[in-house]
Amino acid sequence: MNSKDNLTHRQILDASEKLFSERGYTAVTLQDIARAVEMRHASLYYYAPGGKEELYVKVMERGFRQHGEGLTNAIIESGEDFRAQIHAVARWFATHPPIDLGRIVRSDLPAIEPAAAQRLITLSLETLRMPIAAAVRNAARKGQVNVADPDFAAMGLVALLQSVHNIPPMFMGDTEDRVQAAIASADMLLDGWFKR
Q1: Which is it for the CA torsion 88, 94, 100, 102, positive or negative?
Q2: The CATH number of domain 52-191 is 1.10.357.10
Q3: At what angle do helices 82-95 and 175-191 cross, to 10 degrees?
Q4: Which residues contact 113 (CB under 8 A, 6 or more apart)?
Q5: Where do the structural domains in the chain lie, given as residue ranges?
Q6: What span, in angstroms and rounded, lies between the C-alpha atoms of 77 and 84?
Q7: In terms of Cα–Cα distance, which of 45, 28, 34 is closest to 12?
Q8: Whose CA is closest to 55, among 11, 110, 102?
Q9: What is the pLDDT of residues 132-167, one digit of tens each?
Q10: pLDDT for 55-114, tens place per residue?
């Protein structure tokens, strides 16, 4: 592909990502994507011969990889303090578009080819869970936390932090409010609810 084709391809992926994120796989048509990029429906097949499913898989792979790299970098850049690492994870999730894992697992993935669905599930677990689980394991080795299942804890944290995107805007003024809500949620998890 030449540079113009690459730019158009990125625009198609960006528009597809926005639509799939807002509506889910089954509610988006190729016509919706074509309209979003001001292109004829048939022209999309030049960039995605596999149609809507190919676009969905590419968008999801790109999104999961971006999250994985972002989470890994956020953890590394926050230093060795475990709470600072979890706060960096909270900040990352609060400032990036949400991933509706519930909808993806229950609605989107059953609608695509099983091999592609399995590949996306595996990638989501690797990119969202592994950086956080590694930080939890490291903190456990240092005696800072006592977590029986770091992988489950990591996915629980992801679900909790993603939930800040579900707070209606009338209660969440701006991005910094969402960041503070995510950090407060992470602290609640880290500190627990029981008196000590």
Answers
A1: positive
A2: yes
A3: 140
A4: 53
A5: 52-191
A6: 10
A7: 34
A8: 11
A9: 999 999 999 999 999 999 999 999 999 999 999 998
A10: 999 999 999 999 999 999 999 999 999 999 999 999 999 999 888 888 999 999 999 999
